[in-house]
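Continued from yesterday's entry.
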Amino acid sequence: MGFLIDTEEFNNFLEKLSRHYRIYAPVNLKGKGRFSDTDSVRYMQVNTIEEIEFNKKSNFSPREVLLPITQTLFYFTENSVKEPEVDSKKILLFLRSCDVNAIKRIDEIYLRNGPEDIYYGKLRDKVKFVLMECEHSFENCFCCSMGCNTTLDYDLFVRYKDKKVFVECRDRSFEPFFKNEGQCDVKPHFVKSNDIKVRIPENIDENIFNNFMWDEYSARCIACGRCNVVCGTCTCFSMQDIFYRDNENAGERRRVWSSCMVDGYTDIAGGHSFRKSNGERMRFKVMHKIYDFRKKFGYNMCVGCGRCDDVCPEYISFSNCVNKLNNAAREVK
């Protein structure tokens, strides 16, 4: 069911909803970009539709809403352990098709890859999706190649144009908010093609793991981990125990985002490391996104958002790497 609403009425809807929901959406942060004269689009809590950035791709993914950068798992003292209280409010999350598909990938890792992760599950159960359409493909996007340019997994679709708000309501629990509004046909537009085309190798010979193509990334990559931080599907973390100054026997255990691309991530006892060179780390990341994950779950982990290409200071392109891998795989045959 679709509705046509003016800006003021939609903001009233958000105000009413905020009593029960925390509303997150991409917001343009002036002067907060990589350089002093650039902006950054990042997920923040919003109160009005005017705050939401509909025309730019967010620099960071909505993953940090469901999988916090730093998350306390429990507090401990000498003789007790206590999990933190969970916010009673639900979450309404504005996001694009590729990011809806990215959360599906995170669900596989945290909810269906063995026992459910209770910390992620508690947040995930509270989330409803508001789809934002892409009128055109953004720079470095290759979502069509990954089959992630469309989705039906959303509760609301919102289009903001000429001070009017077009809403498709797929979740009947939201319909009472719009009962007095004019009805119309509303359907999202999905991107049908990207400038960048990516070809995923279907059959990968194990010899490709030792191909010389990975040596290029040992020379170029600086192991900053930016690609992992902005990625919508990366799920790795490390554990930290924090001890309080006033009582060294009390503290908290946190999990913190970590990165397979940074030095020390695979270090083990005795000073050994599974992947020492940056090329080996790049190989692991790429193969995990388009080979290992697919081998287990039946589809690729990468959704083609292109954020890794956007953010790399050395202009390393993930999409180019996959195409090189495809060419190398054909040569091996």
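--- second protein ---
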Amino acid sequence: MTSARPARGVAAAALLLAVAAVHLLASGQPLGAITGLLDGAADGQAEKIVWELSVPRLLTALLTGAALGVAGYVLQATLRNTLAAPEFSGVNPGAVLGILGGLTLGLFPADSAAGALLAALAGGALGGGLTWLLSAGRDPAGLVVHGLLGSALLAGLTTMLLAYQPSRFGNALRWLIGSVEGRVWEHLALTSWWIAGGIAVAWACSGMLAVLSPSDDHAASLGVHPGLGRAVALTVAIALTAGAASMAGAIAFVGLAAPHVARRLGGRVLTVAVVGAIALAGADSLAQLAGQLLDGTHRLGIPTGVITALAGAAVLIRLGRSQ
């Protein structure tokens, strides 16, 4: 087992590099502009475009996918439900509602990474808290059902918000569907550290998650307070989901599918982070390739969230049949 871990690490690194290369090539920029970055300076116009737009978009996809994958893993382990995910627990819809509410009220500029993160945190905590209240006193495994109810309520509030100011619908679309396009280095400067820190905390809590996963009685017998442990784990999941939402909006199904793939590979937090990163970067590569379909002089833009929703629907159907 020990000798297999370095081999898996090398394979994961190679796969990440391959996905990153495909993602940059899918951006539509000349190959010379991409390889020109290896010279240490982006001198030409094409190289600057790659460095200032394509590379931040790649990093946004990797970080967002890793955050959602780990958040989903934490939720599934803590709630003991294989269908638990940020979008089914009220956290993701709440985070998006927080961002759109903050933008509508003018609490922060549209390009403010810190403002979006704080608003997503407040909204995600609201969504998670609402789900927790709806399921108070019940088995944590059934929390997903109440999460769906809370998510529906939050989605209704978001719709009301958009109806109140329909002129903002164009800007809101990227948050509602989910897209990693348009992120630049300024956005990554804060959120990348937030997500990396959240993943580090989740990794440090791996032992606690393993103890909580079988049952509350099992956790209590090993000296872990189930309620306190669950509160810590859910706080980490909310923090990671808020970080992802502040970067890319309502990306769905990555947090649902990535933990299942990681468990099949025999991994935990770090494995699911890599799987989530690869999944979202791959989905965005497909979105960019589809976006290069030209209709006359107009480019067809495909948000990343559309690709993950289509792929995730198939995963959800398969999981639902296996329950």
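The beta strands are 294-295, 298-299. The longest strand covers residues 294-295. Will compare against the first tomorrow.
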